[in-house]
Amino acid sequence: MLDVQGVGYEVDATMSTFYQLPEVGQEVVLHTHLIVREDAHLLFGFVSEAERSLFRNLIKVSGIGARTALVILSGMSADQFARCVIEGDVTSLVKLPGVGKKTAERLVIELRDRLDVHDSVAHDMPAIKRTTVASPVDDAQSALIALGYKPAEATRMVQGIDSKGLDTENIIRLCLQNAVKQK
């Protein structure tokens, strides 16, 4: 609960933010994100801009809500999470509460490009070799598997289109469009 000039705000925060809060009664600065729903206004607070940015990227991933994003960011630091995503370390992500294998694969696929280019967390990690990032075709194939297609079927779908010069998102879109046309 934050008191802002006599008005109390309930703020949900990650455990890392919670542990960095000052003593009760002391001044605090948090980077916030407000979610307005039909039944509630939810305020989320973060100790750093990088953590808030990562939270915002997480809630854009299909199947990841604000509560799950908080749990993920409470389970590992923003730097650790970004490193796992960029390196494709699904094994470490599965160890987080509420994250299964398919969710971890989806996180890697959907966030890899966003973190690699836009997120300040990723830019602060010079030790990562960006040459280890899978090709858009491999990412698309992994995404199709994460969506429930069998590996052989995903491979066939990707090979059935001309993927030259396309990014992962467009490869997936074409594969799914072709699958719908065939049914």
How would you describe this structure to a colleague?
It is a single chain. Helix 8 packs across helix 10. With 183 residues, the protein is mainly alpha-helical. It is built from 10 helices and 5 strands; from the N terminus they run βββαββααααααααα. The longest helix has 17 residues. Helix content is 53%, strand content 11%. The protein has 2 domains: 122 residues, 5' to 3' exonuclease, C-terminal subdomain (DNA polymerase, domain 1, Orthogonal Bundle); 49 residues, Helicase, Ruva Protein, domain 3, CATH 1.10.8.10. The protein has a 3-stranded mixed beta sheet with strand order 3-5-4. A two-stranded antiparallel ribbon has the order 1-2.
**What is the CATH third-level topology name of the largest domain?**
DNA polymerase, domain 1
Average residue pLDDT: 81
Look at the helices and sheets and give the structural class.
Answer: mainly alpha
The CATH homologous superfamily of the largest domain corresponds to: 5' to 3' exonuclease, C-terminal subdomain
Q: Can you count the helices?
A: 10
E-strand count = 5
- Please name the CATH architecture of the largest domain: Orthogonal Bundle
Strand line-up in the sheet with most strands = 3-5-4
Helix content: 40-55%
The profile of the biggest β sheet is: 3 strands, mixed
In total, the number of domains comes to 2
Strand content: 5-15%
Low-confidence spans:
117-133
CATH top-level class of the largest domain: Mainly Alpha
N-to-C order of helices and strands: EEEHEEHHHHHHHHH
Outline type:
elongated
* End-to-end separation: 54 Å
